[in-house]
Amino acid sequence: MKETWYFVDSGHGTPSFNMALDEALLNWHSQGEIPPVLRFYGWKPAGISVGYFQKVNGKIDVKGARQHGIELVRRQTGGRAVLHDQELTYSVLVSEDHEAMPASVKGAYLAISHGLLEGFKNLGIEAEFAVPEGKLETTDSAVCFEEPSWYELIVAGKKAAGSAQTRKKGVILQHGSIPLHVDKVKLFDLFVFPNDHVKERARRAFGDKAVAINEVSKHPINFEEAKQAFKTGFERGLDIELKPFKLSEEQVAEVHALESKYKSEEWNYSR
């Protein structure tokens, strides 16, 4: 008999709400109030999430983000900045000692990424796991999609989904971005470059490194189609059944209380 996980379809939320709900789900799972969770969501308005340890000053063009109506938020997970705009975002919350989850970060990435792999298959897109040769090159770029990490999904050698993971209170939180379309002009207006020539060169090179679903799909894929494809993909890839879960009024209030943290300059700009 397959294990049942909760499925949270939270629609499009603000950057602060999206990060607060991921934290609340982590807390509730840690406290044993809910089973493991798969959540899908979008961003309205668009957001730029910076990694937990990432510096904003000198890396992120905050003024450029504001001009595009993009709100900045800091994630609990590490890694580099991600533009969340026309995409499906997922999060998985599962206990560190769950029998299907390896102890190592890389191993857990691989286990969870099977759900992503199956989702791409459902869309008729041939994806595979990134297995970097030797040690990953570390660039000074602040842009997440510049290079794939272990077991992220690549299509035709280009990064097609970016994920980040943290472990807190005995729970693995892995969330990630599955772009449906990438606005490369908007994306590169969000980062600080020495000059316009360097920015333009980086923008041109980006097309060789990353790809969005609608660049490789045989027909246009919208948010709802992607959500359904990846939902059944996670069920197959993780060998689970998903049960829809609706938050109670008290739980929604708890998420909104947590939001103040993700709206604060102290949290978002303190690195």
Write a structural description:
- It is a single chain.
- The chain has a single domain (3-131, 142-269), classed as 2-Layer Sandwich (BirA Bifunctional Protein, domain 2), CATH 3.30.930.10.
- It starts with a strand and ends with a helix.
- α1 crosses α8 and α3 packs across α7 (223-238).
- It has 271 residues and is of the alpha/beta class.
- The protein has helices spanning 15-30, 62-67, 105-122, 184-188, 196-206, 213-216, 223-238, 249-263, 265-269, and strands at residues 3-13, 37-43, 47-50, 71-74, 82-84, 87-95, 128-129, 153-155, 158-168, 171-179, 240-244.
- It is globular, with a radius of gyration of 18 Å.
- The protein has an eight-stranded mixed sheet with strand order 7-8-9-10-6-2-1-11, sandwiched between helices. A three-stranded mixed sheet has the order 4-3-5.
